[in-house]
């Protein structure tokens, strides 16, 4: 049985504490000169590939990819270069939501003189932009959006995306529809062959939650209510597990047609124009 990805409860907290206790206990058992020597050897063997290995007491060595934060910062820097290459000196810049986008916001001040105003997909991003001295406009008050920068939870070879892990999917989809160009920024872990391993977020009118859940089951999914989460639009989120999405455009349409659905996290009808992926070997650009 699938457990809710975002459900916060006493059982989840207790489980986390137990796992942490076991991990700490395991590391103490392995402490000592022999363990330090072994750990040193492993680090030497893996430094050249940018990986570090952890050794729980009862498990074999497991590789941990180069720090995702580093990859996110690298891809954010390349996205900034894309903004700098834009010819207009009075840019209307669309800003998405999520940890990779926040890395981009952190360095955006370097181009502040080029940006007339911004349009934000969430209250969180709006706050960060204003803290960095940027004007944030209502989408209805701007004549256009020149460029939209946002992350993704999954991306395939067709630049179709799953988004909405941060519950801002509806506003993200609106801004991407308006934008002349949409650049998606992510680390390489988000690149997949088939969409659906990441549970598909669906924003739903609260009174329609159970009805929409039943309809999603008919589609072959296993919806889980993201309890305690209310979107900036005042709605709830169902995360749909168990999907293998081979026809993303058709799936996006079918879910949108369900009564009570506000929006779903498939960005297939309006996919990205460019995907920038942070990898251990550098930032890779993918366009159709």
CATH fold label of the largest domain:
Rossmann fold
So, CATH architecture of the largest domain? 3-Layer(aba) Sandwich
Decide which structural class fits the backbone: alpha/beta
- Rounded to an integer in angstroms, the radius of gyration calculated over CA atoms is 21 Å
Low-confidence runs of at least 5 consecutive residues: 1-65
Name of the CATH class of the largest domain: Alpha Beta
Instruction: Label the overall shape.
Output: globular
**Strand neighbour order, sheet with most strands:** 4-3-5-8-14-15
The ordered H/E elements are: HHEEHEHEHEEEHEEHEEHEEEE
The number of helical segments is: 8
Describe the sheet with the most strands.
6 strands, mixed
Average pLDDT works out at: 82
The helix fraction, in percent, is 25-40%
> In total, how many domains does the architecture comprise?
3
How much of the sequence lies in strands comes to 15-25%
Task: Tell me the total number of β-strands.
Answer: 15
Structure at a glance:
This protein is α/β, with parallel strands linked by helices and 288 residues long.
Plain-language structure description:
- This protein is α/β, with parallel strands linked by helices.
- It has three domains: 10-64, no CATH class; 68-192 and 270-286, Rossmann fold (3-Layer(aba) Sandwich), CATH 3.40.50; 200-265, 2-Layer Sandwich (Alpha-Beta Plaits).
- The protein contains eight helices and 15 strands.
- The radius of gyration is 21 Å and the shape is globular.
Architecture blueprint of SSEs:
Elements (H helix, E strand, L loop, with lengths): L9 H20 L3 H14 L5 E3 L7 E3 L3 H17 L6 E5 L3 H9 L7 E6 L2 H9 L15 E4 L3 E2 L5 E2 L6 H10 L3 E6 L12 E5 L4 H10 L3 E4 L10 E6 L6 H9 L4 E4 L1 E2 L6 E6 L2 E5 L2
Parallel strand pairs: 3-4, 3-5, 5-8, 8-14
Antiparallel strand pairs: 1-2, 6-7, 7-13, 9-11, 9-12, 10-11, 14-15
């Amino acid at each position: 049985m699938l457990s809710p990805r975002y459900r916060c409860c006493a059982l989840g907290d207790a489980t986390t504490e137990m796992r942490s206790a076991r991990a700490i206990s395991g590391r103490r058992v392995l402490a000592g000169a022999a363990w330090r020597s072994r750990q040193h050897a492993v680090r030497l063997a893996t430094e050249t590939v940018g990986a570090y290995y952890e050794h729980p007491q009862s498990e074999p060595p497991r590789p941990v990819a180069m720090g995702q934060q580093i990859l996110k910062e690298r891809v954010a820097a390349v996205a900034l270069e894309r903004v700098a290459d834009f010819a207009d000196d009075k840019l209307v810049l669309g800003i998405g939501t999520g940890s990779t986008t926040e890395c981009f916001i952190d360095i955006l001040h370097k181009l502040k003189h080029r940006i007339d105003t911004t349009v934000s997909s969430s209250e969180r991003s709006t706050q960060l932009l204003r803290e960095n001295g940027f004007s944030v406009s209502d989408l209805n008050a701007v004549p256009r959006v020149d460029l939209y920068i946002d992350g993704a939870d999954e991306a395939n070879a067709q630049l179709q995306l799953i988004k909405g892990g941060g519950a801002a999917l509806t506003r993200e989809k609106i801004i991407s529809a308006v934008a002349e160009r949409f650049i998606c920024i992510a680390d390489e872990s988000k690149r997949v062959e088939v969409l659906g391993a990441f549970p598909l977020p669906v924003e739903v009118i609260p009174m329609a939650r159970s009805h929409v859940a039943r309809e999603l089951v008919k589609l072959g999914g296993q919806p889980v209510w993201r309890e305690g989460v209310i979107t900036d639009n005042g709605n709830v989120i169902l995360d749909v597990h168990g999907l293998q999405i081979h026809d993303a455009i058709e799936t996006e349409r079918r879910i949108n047609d369900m009564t009570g659905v506000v929006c779903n996290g498939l960005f297939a009808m309006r996919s990205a124009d460019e995907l920038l992926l942070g990898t251990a070997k550098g930032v890779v650009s993918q366009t159709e």
